[in-house]
Amino acid sequence: MSQLQSFPDDANVINTDKKITATTNVSDRERQLDNIQKGRLDKAVIRFSSWIILFQIIFTIPPSVVGLYYGINYGNQCPIQPLINVFLIVHGCCSLVNGIVLLIGFIAANYIKRSSSPSPYARCLLAGSLIGQLVLFLFLVAWLVVGQVWVFGALSNGFQSNDSTRLTTYCYSILFWNGFAVIIITYAVWLILTLVFVVRFIIKRRKIKHKTALTTDEPSSENMAYVKDTNFNF
Asked: I want to staple 99 with a disulfide (CB 3.0 to 4.6 A). Which of 61, 83, 142, 179 is the partner?
């Protein structure tokens, strides 16, 4: 009878062991997810607290205000392509919002970087800034292509700013060249930022390769001990 009674105890022990292993696996997965999230947060903090974001903010907000000014105040001054005004207004609004989103992310990232126990609201602001920047960037890329069609289309159709009576080809010079400059400057800024990102990536890769080469070239302690023993025996 004692042998028969031992079987339920063994089964209970097995079940408890399974529960313990299941809970440990769940806790390990939770730790891994927490580490991944912390790693992503650290990368976002490093990115948004850098001087590149400050550079983007400085060169994003003032041109957007200028584009809004000319797009709103010179609404009927480009008969050859009236949609240039729409392009400047929408691009100015989106660029201004993008600059504000970048500024919020920059402030939140620096707060998280300097604080020992950052607030969860700062993390939410940083995450929202990331999402907002991605959405605005995708929209601005598409809108820049549309504006490029309108501006360069007017240029190819014989744009002139001297005779306002020729409505088929007239456009106010400052308005037209402002739209032209928005396209060229935006492409130039994106090109500069891309080059900076590529150069930083190459530098990081070279540093990692240099560190790995140094670690592989350094002899291990076991090999050094073996060399000392052989020299002592000789």
From this structure: 61
